[in-house]
Design goal:
- This protein has about 280 residues and is α/β, with parallel strands linked by helices.
- It has one domain: 2-enoyl-CoA Hydratase, Chain A, domain 1 (Alpha-Beta Complex).
- Helix content is about 50%, strand content about 15%.
- It is built from 11 helices and 9 strands.
- The strands form 2 sheets. It has a 6-stranded mixed beta sheet, with helices on both faces. It has a 3-stranded mixed beta sheet with strand order 6-8-9.
- Helix 9 crosses helix 10.
- This is Enoyl-CoA hydratase/isomerase.
- GO terms for molecular function: isomerase activity.
- Belongs to the enoyl-CoA hydratase/isomerase family.
Length: about 280
């Protein structure tokens, strides 16, 4: 359990199992600490992110939050080893567990979208599938030169509906369809050209500093006005998108029951090509 944040503007550091939380005056940084799994979204990491956001929501001194990762990958998406574990359960228990996993992830994205303070994603390395969705759930994305963005669930026999919905909301259905159906990745420069980044990509050693610059700039407005503006963008304009997230979670869970999902997950874990891949 994360320690309680105290109302102090001074630097304080808190640690969770897969997430580090650091506050420094009006800025806070949440750092995904799961490099050995490339930042994959295990149930524990999802819970840590929920908890970290809840703590920062309550801290009146924090005005903006940066989301980063300690590894060479920003976030590799769903933890396919967890999905494989669910597939090993008795058949009558599997669907409930898949629905629970995707429901919690959908709720995490919605928590990001409803979070009242600016969220800046500092993306270094790949942001894959659900990891891409996490970045899209933030208000601003800063990326390093080596960042890539992909929505390749179909390549594993899965349905990345949450990522597709967020990508459609942020950049339009044309890009969402192209990325979701092919699984092809965007380079950082291509993501910037598509309007997903707030500025051209930077060198990896400048990533956090650049994210801090944007976070600081986002504290210049009135907190009440910023919260109302975020609500207008993500909840009023994005009302349909929020509805789509819940439906997409259900579709993604159902897709996990298919034979192709099992084949895709097993192929990935065995570092092999799935049987349907056109070579």
């Amino acid at each position: 359990m994360i320690a309680s944040l105290q109302d102090s503007p001074h630097l304080r550091v808190f640690d969770m199992q897969h997430l580090a939380l650091q506050t420094d005056g009006p800025l806070a940084t949440l750092t995904i600490e799961r490099p050995e799994k490339h930042g994959a979204l295990s149930p524990r990491l999802i819970a840590d992110l929920h908890e970290g956001l809840d703590e920062l929501h309550q801290n009146q001194h924090v005005r903006a939050v940066i989301l980063a990762s300690s590894g060479s990958t920003f976030c590799s998406g769903v933890d396919l080893s967890v999905l494989q574990e669910i597939r090993s359960l008795p058949e009558q228990d599997q669907l409930q567990q898949w629905f629970e996993y995707w429901r919690r992830f959908s709720e995490l994205c919605e928590t990001f979208l409803r979070f009242p303070k600016p969220l800046i994603a500092a993306v270094g390395g790949p942001a894959i599938g659900a990891g891409f969705a996490v970045a899209l759930s933030c208000d601003v994305i800063v990326a390093s030169d080596d960042a890539t963005f992909s929505a390749g669930a179909v390549r594993h026999g899965l349905v990345g509906g949450i990522t597709a919905a967020l990508l459609s909301f942020r950049a339009g259905t044309s890009l969402s369809a192209r990325m979701s159906l092919t699984g092809n990745a965007l380079t950082a420069n291509a993501a910037n050209d598509a309007g997903l980044l707030c500025q051209p990509p930077v060198d990896s050693n400048q990533l956090i500093q650049t994210a801090q610059k944007w976070a600081t700039e986002s504290t210049h407005g009135s907190p009440q006005a910023i919260q109302a503006t975020k609500r207008l963008i993500n909840e009023s304009i994005g009302e349909t998108m929020l509805t789509q997230l819940a439906a997409a979670a259900a579709d993604s869970a159902t897709a996990c029951t298919t034979e192709s999902a099992g084949e895709g997950i097993e192929a990935f874990l065995n570092k092999a090509a799935p049987p349907w891949q056109n070579t």
